[in-house]
Amino acid sequence: MPHQFLVVEAVRNVVRITLDRPDVLNSFHTPMAAELQSVLDDATHDAAVRAVLLTGAGRAFCAGQDLAEATPGDGEPSLDFAAHVRKAYNPIVRKIRTLEKPVVAAVNGVAAGAGANLALACDFVFASTSALFIQAFARIGLVPDTGGTFFLPRLVGPARATAMTMLAEKVGAQQALEYGMIYRVCPPDALLAEATGFAERLAGEATVGLGLTKRLLNSALTNDLDAQLELEAELQGVAGRTADFVEGLAAFREKRDPRFEGR
Ligand code: T3D
Q: Can you point out the beta strands (E) in the chain?
């Protein structure tokens, strides 16, 4: 299906999704959110896709909600924000977290509001040295959404999360790395190649095992120890029945690299 507001490319077993509204810093309007949901659904169901990469066109990653859509003309809100967040943003976060394949964000510039939290919902965040993470909501009298109040305190702790969200502090890539918010910082001209190469590497790993690991890590955010131990046992049973486990064991015995097929 052709896309109007995204560029979607297959790079071997990686699907690379570029938010493509650079004139408005790739901010989300309803059609772009719908397209992203649909591409994430496709990535979920396509066995050939074994990793996802998300980035932005131009100088920004994503400036969050398109404020022109939210408040056209006289500045009065035109959207029912609660309904809009439920329909546009929440499904994107759920789809990323339940997609049992690694999702890598390549944050190529500013990531503000829902755009910052979209990145934090991904499994790995690469950021350019020019990237900025801004919980911009407080500046316009809104509250964080798109999972920000869930992920951010867990990633950086409540004190930093409070400062970032209540003060809308700008957090640079290096600071974000030191806070444990993101995985790696790259020079701007190397970001896309490094993040894509990393996603390709992930796409060659034991996809089912990685997907089940993601399910475990999701559950660990809310489970108690007993529930988590039980889930680990159950999912180890599943992983132990995959072809990739058989291949991993054979490679170990034969002292060679495994050739995982993702099943
Ligand atoms: O709707 C609901 O249901 C509520 C949900 C809300 C979720 C949210 O995400 S709320 C948060 C929304 N986002 C923001 O508040 C961020 C707004 N943008 C900024 O603060 C700044 O643009 C940045 C800090 C991100 C970047 O600043 P800078 O100086 O690098 O760029 P700029 O000059 O401000 O922006 C460049 C252009 O992009 C400019 O257009 P122009 O003047 O060249 O025609 C600007 O208006 C446009 N732009 C930037 N962000 C948005 C945007 N246009 C629409 N919506 C935006 N969010």
A: 6-11, 14-19, 51-56, 60-62, 103-107, 110-112, 124-128, 132-134, 170-172, 184-186
